Amino acid sequence: MPSVGIMTQCASIRAKDKPLEKCSNKAQTGSEWCGRHKTTQVRYLDNTGDSISAPLAETKPKPKPETKPKTNTDTKPKPEATDKEKAAAAHRICSVWRRHLAQRTGPLLRHRDMANNPFDFFSSDPVAEIPLQDFTSFVDADGKGYIMDVKSVISLLSHAESNKEVPLNPFNRASLPPLFLQRIKKRQQHKKVAGWAVIQPHTEEQRLSLAVTDVFRMMEDQGYYTDPSWFIDLGRLDLQRLYLEIADIWMHRASLSTNDKNRIVPPPGKVIKMATRAVVLMPLKGLRPLLLETCKTLVSSATESSDRRLGVMYVLGALSCISQGAAEAYPWLVEMFAPGCVSRVTAGQLHVIHPSVLAY
Question: Per the record, where are the segments of Basic and acidic residues compositional bias (predicted)?
Fold first, then answer.
């Protein structure tokens, strides 16, 4: 019996076409044949005619020598590209880059003069000065193009999301194209673009100034010139007068039908949220937010731009009866709405021409 670690060589010939060579495989345990020749069993005979079944020491297979990769010395160097091939390659690169820019910035990158807005709605920067990395544009369903700073758009979307509102085009209050919103969202994911830094007011004056500026910018978006100082400089009695003037214009002087009012301020919006008799008793601290909310409701609630412009005209018309700056800027509004429902203020008292305004 062979010792441990010793294997017996198969007794078969290597193959039919090689009868003079012996199989080099080891025999299976308890047999003189390997697994391949177990069924054929054609015994190998040496030159003397004797069969040979010599023991074979088990050895580890020799590692294959490392061979260096063959280098094809016959390979000829590639010929240098011709000028025509270089131009074609450059054209392909430019085409890919232009396509990438069009997908990233929208259709108006090379046509800024065709934009329907000359300024960015948030930063008030001219659209011609918006840098490439912040540029974005779109064309709405009416075929009108708009250019914006991407940081302004992201600030707009963040504001709409925080207030659970649908983001609208700030220039005409129409829905923003879904493809444009998708493009902005993709830029946020890939480039981590943030909106404009939010200015945090630290004093009451700063908070008032920011709130007034926001409302007055809405009026400017409708094509009117404004100055926040027209509102900021108003005292307690002036703000009470402004509320009474707006109430009288809305309820009487403008001769608005119910349908007209619903177009300018769609339900459930409400312009006169507090009774005029209560307003004439309010302090300055409560009057400012009430008047700002009233003005904002009038200038931003309507769906159609023409109706929003009407709301702006009523607010500026009321202001022109009280603010000297507004009266000088809009003399035609003074002619339309003067003298107003309050004739004068004496000894801290309002003298109302039409007492019916106190019933609103």
Answer: 59-85
